[in-house]
Amino acid sequence: MRKFKNFTAMAAPLDRANVDTDQIIPKQFLKAVVRSGLGRGLFFDWRFTPDGGENPDFILNKTRYKGAGVLIARANFGSGSSREHAVWALDDYGFKAVIAPSFADIFRNNCLKNGLLTIALRPEEVDALVEATQTYEGYRLTIDLDNQTVRDDFGWSAHFEIPPFAKKCLLEGLDDVALTLAHEKEIVAYERSHALPWRT
């Protein structure tokens, strides 16, 4: 997992509550066993019309939000099934952080384990962000994980909470495999001391 670095990026609003993982990445894309390329399936049923063309009414298809790196969503984002592909699709599309009043627990855990930061803010703070993205073209947010803050170019800022261990893993780029390998010497020593006769 790559290390999370503080960044500034344009924000895009997805002004819908209870967006589930089937809407984030529909079932036909779950055959993929690699993370790359899944961005094309992100919000597929909303981004595209039945004939395959872009839906001009969907927010991410609007020119002013092209290239956004922060997604502003509503309550209970990522509910539904626990498909990790939803996180991979958001990441592959270019989002580095998602801000919402609340997230489904499994989805949030999957995000943190894959380097995608989820930021839970108060509903009124999310209201302000959605309004700002709709008012100011090219509206940008700066995400500072070290200090656990979100701020814009106009002086607005908010603090967010994150478990210390999850924060450490994001900043150092530690996924479950990397955390295990950090104890490689102890694991090898244990295996040697518990070697079975037919394995020696």
Q: What does this 3D model show about the protein?
A:
- With 200 residues, the chain is of the alpha/beta class.
- The chain has a single domain (7-173), classed as Aconitase, domain 4.
- It has 8 helices and 7 strands.
- The protein has a 7-stranded mixed β-sheet.
- Strand 2 (70-72), helix 3 (85-93) and strand 3 form a beta-alpha-beta unit.
- The two termini are 35 Å apart.
Would you state the CATH class?
A: Alpha Beta
- The CATH architecture comes to Alpha-Beta Barrel
- What proportion of the residues is helical, as a percent range? 25-40%
What do we call the CATH homologous superfamily?
Aconitase, domain 4
Layout of helices and strands:
Elements: E1 7-13, H1 21-24, H2 44-47, E2 70-72, H3 85-93, E3 97-100, H4 105-113, E4 117-120, H5 123-135, E5 140-144, E6 149-152, E7 157-159, H6 164-172, H7 176-181, H8 184-193
Parallel strand pairs: 1-2, 2-3, 3-4
Antiparallel strand pairs: 1-5, 5-6, 6-7
Summed up:
It is built from eight helices and seven strands. With about 200 residues, it is an alpha/beta fold.
What keywords describe this structure?
single chain; 200 residues; alpha/beta; Aconitase, domain 4; 8 helices; 7 strands; 32% helix; globular
